[in-house]
Specification:
Helix 1 runs antiparallel to helix 2 and helix 3 crosses helix 5. With 148 residues, the protein is mainly α. The model has no long low-confidence stretch (mean pLDDT 84). The protein is flat.
Length: 148
């Protein structure tokens, strides 16, 4: 007869704070390394930059998977619901804002502002990410308030 599996104990607050600190340090090291390598031109600089960014993101994903396995079903459901509804809503709002600015005749052109095409792409991606995170945060709080 095999013993019944013991229920999982969720990670404590200290564990999550430590995880955030470690991931922030790794991200800082990765960002600093990428900043040093970015000045190196050519294919080698591009490959090294992609490698460092990939390694940093892989470490962050491993931390996220570990965190996900440590939360209970209610918390998982809250995050899934918030990401679907809040993140999707944030993308919609962000797309409307960006497209409105794109087609506005009063908006300054990239040449007038002195912005390059890569800067525009990165700015648009960052703006959409901010809208997604804002929508996610609002939806996550709404889910928990509704299920208290």
């Amino acid at each position: 007869m095999t013993p019944a599996p013991r229920p999982k104990r969720p990670h404590g607050l200290g564990t999550y704070v430590l995880l955030l600190i470690v991931i922030a340090i790794i991200g800082g090291i990765g960002g600093a390394a990428q900043g040093l390598i970015a000045d190196r031109g050519g294919v080698l600089g591009l490959v090294l930059t992609a490698g460092i960014m990939s390694l940093t993101m892989a470490i962050a994903v491993v931390g996220c998977v570990w965190w996900w396995r440590g939360i209970d079903e209610a918390a998982r459901e809250a995050h899934k619901w918030a990401w679907w509804w809040g993140g999707s809503g944030g993308v919609l709002v962000g797309a409307i804002v960006l497209l409105t600015l794109t087609f506005s005749e009063d908006a300054a052109t990239p040449v007038e502002v002195g912005v390059s095409a890569p800067d525009l792409i990165a700015g648009g991606m960052f703006a959409i990410l901010l809208f997604q995170m804002a929508g996610y945060s609002i939806a996550w709080a709404a889910w928990w308030l509704r299920h208290r």
